[in-house]
């Protein structure tokens, strides 16, 4: 059964005029008198005035097979797209226009990816919830404003829940924004719970600053981790006066971070400046000797 309402044509799956594999509706050529009578019987019986500028959405349900035009397939054979029982919508400028546009066929997503979870008596919990309940924060990416906001919100929330219980921060961090890292460190220093740090993999650049900024006596590293410290990096651009001010800001940031490293490690400021002049990679034993960490968590290998 076919009917027209407001310029939209709705075709039922059980229509006798249009079968599930009918090419009359989906062929790129317009309807004409040379087409078989079976293909035109329903449209002729229910023809209605059509405006050339009207836009129609054809809803098709059931099994459908369609030839895909180039460049998606060969002009002779083409590729086929099948769907079973899933309604599809094809946007057309004019259903009977010779320049018929089929529109893009969007792939329907199936089940969303399943996040890793841990089974508990109360039901499954995702890993982030399990870590949060155990007062563990994991930083495994470069620190930007979004990462800093997430870490700070976790720190403040855990401090609100229990201000006497310690917090453990795992780091596998290649660095990030100086301002974002300093914001996290300020929060670590401001809340009452002690925040311990553990390095997995690498703690480089500002990630090393977070590692060294943990509670003294609670800064650890895995035996195969690497730690790298250096002076802050900055890019300048714009007018000459703007460049001068940006350079001054970068110099002040370097002095601030060098003083922080000197306070964290107990090393003289001159030695810290020598270490941060260029990229300085340290093993866990060298980092512990320098004062960046307090111990190494031994493993079997």
UniProtKB/TrEMBL annotation:
Keywords: Hydrolase, Protease, Serine protease. The keyword Phosphoprotein does not apply. It catalyses: Hydrolysis of proteins to small peptides in the presence of ATP and magnesium. alpha-casein is the usual test substrate. In the absence of ATP, only oligopeptides shorter than five residues are hydrolyzed (such as succinyl-Leu-Tyr-|-NHMec, and Leu-Tyr-Leu-|-Tyr-Trp, in which cleavage of the -Tyr-|-Leu- and -Tyr-|-Trp bonds also occurs). One of its GO terms (biological process) is proteolysis. HAMAP family: ClpP (MF_00444). PANTHER family: ATP-DEPENDENT CLP PROTEASE PROTEOLYTIC SUBUNIT, ATP-DEPENDENT CLP PROTEASE PROTEOLYTIC SUBUNIT 6, CHLOROPLASTIC. This is ATP-dependent Clp protease proteolytic subunit. It comes from Rhodamnia argentea. The lineage of its organism: Eukaryota, Viridiplantae, Streptophyta, Embryophyta, Tracheophyta. The gene is LOC115737228.
